[in-house]
Design goal:
single chain, five-stranded mixed β-sheet, five-stranded parallel β-sheet, alpha/beta, globular
Length: 570
Amino acid sequence: MQNKKWKFRVAVSRQEEVLRVSRVYSIPPIVATILLKRGIENLDEFLIPTVDKLHDPFLMRDMDKAVTRIVQAISQGERIVVYGDYDVDGITSTAIITRFLRARGAEVVYHIPDRLQEGYGVNIQALDKLSAEGATLMITVDCGITAVGEVAHAKELGMDVIVTDHHECKDELPDAVAVINPKRPDCSYPFKQLAGVGVAFKLLQALSVSMRIHNRVLLEEYLDITAIGTVADVMPLVGENRILAKNGLEQIAYTGNKGICALARRAELDLRHITASTIGFMLAPRINAAGRVGDPKCAVELLLADTEKAADAYAEQLDNINRFRQTEEHRIFEEAMTMLTEDPSYAEDSVLVLSKKGWQHGIIGIVASKITERFYKPCILISLDGEDGKGSGRSIKQFNLFVALSACDHELVKFGGHELAAGLTVEADKIPSFRRAINAYAKSVLDQVDCVPEITIDAELPLAYMNLHTVDKLSIMEPYGMENGSPIFICQKLCVVGIRSLSEGRHVRLQLSDGVYFINAIGFSMGDLAEKVHLHDYIDIVFTLDTNIYRGERQIQVILKDVKPSSMDV
């Protein structure tokens, strides 16, 4: 029914090890089995992710230089500007640095570029303005690692720069007072996968040590925002990210941040039951919407708000912006799908490159992600404006988009990003040649690999164990996210005893039985199953477990990931 490949994790070779881990950490054998199958290297850090396990921030290259310069700026009353990015990672990074420095008595302003007028990253015009307004020190957050020319310009203006970033480095680093990025080649920091807000938090951690600020203050006031940025930027929730996210989620449950509380009220979200998933689907899109189609300063001010009245006003504004974003997203997706359908040449492409005037630049990345998921092909959407186009791309795990764009840099004005997501600027008349170039490169790479999407299965789970008790036992593995996904199970030889379409055919609910037990399973965006599965068919399902609240009662939710006909003769 689906063309996904089901891949089983290698079984644990020694059952004695499962029992030992189960006993030492007081966890059920099924959890111990999953962790061992996943190859978690440091079980103590994973299962007991306490904040005392955070690495020494001074292990990060140039951290000592950054702290010295910031302390000097505070003591001398210099005007400091925090220069951030317009996504959730950049917004949360800007908020925690600004809040921290203002609380220490510093004169701090922040600048987040307008996505349409200024584009991504540090720009000369903004530097000129900020310098003219008296800024003598600029701290970049979630950006700046490739701003070699811009940092040189700031230096000419008499403005010192501290770069904090987590994006991939190019051969030349900016000539700044300090360049803090765990991914720089000469940085020996033990954990390389921090979000931008994670790097910003490490700077605050180092400043707290230098300024003799109690660690409790740092955690209570900034860890909640840090967790939101880390989860929203889809960073691997392992290692130090897991420590920040798990403890930050616990902090959010009783946060004193008026902006987070106001946004949760708008989203009708109970912060006592916050998860990485609710951040990703409920809170983050509202914060992100400001940078995509509105004014990102609204989102920063939400997190800086010191009264409920101000926080509620910003939350309402973000909610309205997010509704507009949803409408535009649907329109762009439908237009892109029409282009793919009407032009048969796209079927031959390994990388889908689409462009059109009138597409909101801030939204095309979300749509590119949906198209990539639909076709399992890298996708780059380009918003045309005059002679230039600004693009946003998403990729699949077999294709490093950043490396691909590097191979095609002669076709581009500029680019930056990660393996799976990147942004670019291209001259409009070069889009056809860029499409040919990146597809030529993709052919050389993807012809060597199997490009069928995979589902990796953690364990078999019979119907009898699909209950709230199992879900509660698995919760020790939360928060779930990149590189620590919700456990995926398989259950085979189930009879379909009920089929129901939901939400005008977008989703489907199947009632399944093994002859003794019954369970309802929901397939989100799998409405086509209602046509392909019939009553009394025997099927195998791959699924995750979750809970939901229905009429005040907590219930188990079996979420389908894929379905195939059972191989059993019946």
